[in-house]
Write a structure and sequence with these properties.
The protein is an alpha/beta fold. Helix content is 37%, strand content 20%. It has a 4-stranded mixed beta sheet with strand order 3-2-1-4.
Length: 137
């Protein structure tokens, strides 16, 4: 069940962006250059991948039992904890950033992988990330 997700955008339920005192809502996104390169490398490797929005959440298991399904209805593909902050920091500093996730547990269906499976099966994503980094100028 290992699924690679490239985080094109990162929604969040945190107040991280408030430090920038923007007069609106900031939409954190990946570097197009890195995203394009990663997709190209994934295709060369024959990797199965998805591109879309991720949720950077302060909580994986929310008291709101419908929260995950609400985000899924908006096209959010996975939940993680750092992408939005990473993308905001990169934007503020004029740097490139891309989040590459390997989904190991499905919060809605309850499908899970073991620690051993995770330890031994994330190689494809790591190779993909390294190949992408090597292509940068």
């Amino acid at each position: 069940m290992f699924i690679i997700v490239f985080g094109m955008g990162a929604s969040t339920n945190s107040a991280y962006a408030s430090q920038y005192e923007l007069p609106g809502t900031y939409a954190p996104i990946a570097s197009y250059k890195l995203l394009k390169t990663a997709i190209s490398e994934a295709e060369k490797l024959g990797a199965t991948y998805h591109v879309g929005n991720v949720l950077s959440s302060d909580t994986f298991y929310n008291d709101d039992k419908d929260a995950t399904e609400k985000w899924a209805k908006m096209g959010v593909m996975c939940i993680e904890m750092e992408a939005a902050a990473l993308y905001m920091n990169a934007a503020r500093l004029g740097k490139n950033a891309l989040v590459i996730c390997t989904v190991s547990n499905h919060i809605i269906t309850g499908e899970e992988t073991t620690a051993e499976e995770r330890q031994n099966s994330f190689g494809e994503m790591i190779i993909l990330a390294l190949e992408t980094a090597l292509k940068l100028d």
